[in-house]
Amino acid sequence: MKILVVDDEPDVQALFEQRFRREIRNGEFQFSFAFSGEEAIGYLEGHASEVVMILSDINMPGMSGIELLKSIRKDHPMAPPIVMMITAYGDTDNYDQAMKFGADDFLTKPVNFTELKQKLQERYEG
Amino acid sequence: MEFFLLSFFLIQFIRKRLETAVKSPELDKILVFARYASIGLMAAYYIFNQSTFIHWLWYPFLGGLFWFLYNHGEYKQIRSLVQSAIPFIIVSLIGDFAHLVLPIKIYNRWDNYIDTAKAFALLWLFALWYNSQKQQKALEREREEQRRKDEINEAKKDALEYLVNERTIELTRQKEELQKTLDELKATQNQLIQSEKMASLGELTAGIAHEIQNPLNFVNNFSEVSVELCQELEEEINKTTIADADKEYINGIISDLSQNQQKITHHGKRADSIVKGMLQHSRASSGTKEPTDVNALADEYMRLAYHGLRAKDKEFNAALVTDFDPTMGKVDVMPQDLGRVFLNLFTNAFYAVAEKKKLNKDNPAFANYKPEVKIITKLFGGKLYIRVSDNGTGMPESVISKIFQPFFTTKPTGQGTGLGLSMSYDIITKSHEGTLDVTSVAGEGTEFKITLPV
Questions:
Q1: Which position has the higher pLDDT, B366 or B191?
Q2: A109 closest CB neighbour out of B217, B224, B283
Q3: Closest to B220 (Cβ–Cβ): which among A14, A92, A110?
Q4: In B, which residues are within 8 Å of A111 by CB distance?
Q5: Which residues 103-122 in chain A show a CB within 8 A of chain B?
Q6: Chain B contact present for A93, CB below 8 A
Q7: What would the pLDDT profile of B118-168 be if each residue is shown by its tens digit?
Q8: Is residue B419 domain-resident?
Q9: CB-based contact (8 Å) between B288 and chain A?
Q10: Per residue in B42-85, pLDDT tens?
Q11: How far apart are CA A115 and CA A105, in angstroms?
């Protein structure tokens, strides 16, 4: 399962790679990283059919996660990837907006990796 | 006889005119004496068969009297009166002298002239007296007039005085009112400055929290994942065939690393809970008001705070006193936010009584110390009053002035974030538009007063 993680913090890559080291080694998950909304759009143009899931931060400079979500739902209506949005603690406005524009799930920072792992596994198996 | 009448009436007249009986009793005495003397002379004149000698005594008597009256400054007013009598006396003297020295024949010849002169002198005297009397009356009238004017002026003056007094009182009252308003304004201004400070601190706090949260998440996540990595590393090393001593040594290092990572995670989580508290600050006004049984809410959080402290300190004990307004019914508040306020206030109250007990456990004066935390609610005049009081350690003035500031705490490091009361203050004053006041006496206890408009 190919997962695209979109976050403006480069350290997210190291964190995900370490957190999911076993799963990556087993071949369960395959991670790609984009450090802005624009980069994510660019990546999706080349790998649209591969990406099954997108994990995106909402508060990013330039294109925000919500705009990215809107763009994905508009440009890829046929084979919609699963989109999970991540944002700061208790931001109800962003939650409502994310749900309105068709996010599949919502995670709050700090990301609980045990929970995330569980959710990803459910999607992977189901 | 005529001299008696003259002196008698003159004396009477003077006494009346100058009001000597009242104004100068000394002079009055002399005048009264002179009157008796004149009566005495007249009586003597008749007793001694109309004695010529007695008749002559009148001249020195009148002369003396006139001289006395004429030479005393205070009789200037009556000087003309005295003068008017002089011609009569001189004519009488001439007549009497002529009678004494001239032969009777010649005297009889002049007698008519003398009598006529006497009559004229008398007429002159009366005319002058009458005139003087008239003038006196006119003067009197003038004086009367003046007095009336004076009285009117006096009355006007009194009226003005009264008005001035009235105005002065009015002005003083206005000044006091203004002073009061000014004082109130100053107090309000201070409160405004205070709440403005609180507001900016609250915003700053929330801003800082947001900024800190992301790097802190990385610290926590990387340290957590490092613990996992250490475990894996240990497993991997056990698979290899390195000498046992080396393995043990390497495992020791891994165990230390793992412990360090755990410590980083622990302290990171601590920082995280502070950040969460700070973020709650900024979300203080996010709730919505709904009809709530405030008594039940207060009771619930009182018990929660009590058992929270009991869980940490088994010896802890305190009396929970409730004085709820049973007629209150449901009140529109934000139950979760108000609950947080209750939790903070009760936790602090229980902490204060527990501290007091702990600090004084070896002090015999406090052997009978009964920790007590009390809540009173009252709905009255469109306002909900809530009081949370304790008989714990209390606070000095220097602490009271800071307790609503974010991050101010008197608890030991790690036990309090210093955000509880600051957040409570925001919830009460901003979200509920109420007031949160505190009164405390060091060593005696503390009382928090919440007033909410309903």
A1: B366
A2: B217
A3: A110
A4: 217, 221
A5: 109-111, 113
A6: no
A7: 888 888 888 887 887 888 889 889 999 999 999 999 999 999 999 999 999
A8: yes
A9: no
A10: 888 888 877 777 777 888 888 888 787 777 756 666 777 777 77
A11: 12
Please report residues of A whose CB lies closer than 8 A to that of B218: 9, 11, 15
B355 burial level (CB within 10 Å; 0-12, 13-18, 19+): middle
- For the segment(s) A2-107, the CATH number from 3.40.50.360, 3.40.50.2300, 3.10.310.10, 3.40.50.150 is 3.40.50.2300
Mean pLDDT over residues B226-243, rounded? 90
pLDDT band for B7, please (50, 70, 90 cuts).
Answer: confident
ipTM over 0.95: no
C-alpha B431/C-alpha B446 separation (Å) is 24
Give the full edge-to-edge strand order of the sheet including B383-390. Answer: B319-323, B372-380, B383-390, B445-453, B435-441
CB-nearest partner of A18 from B216, B229, B286: B229
Question: How far is the C-alpha of A56 from the C-alpha of A86, rounded, in Å?
Answer: 6
State whether B269 and B295 are in the same domain.
no
Tokens linked to B396: 């000095």
Structure tokens at B391: 């008989």
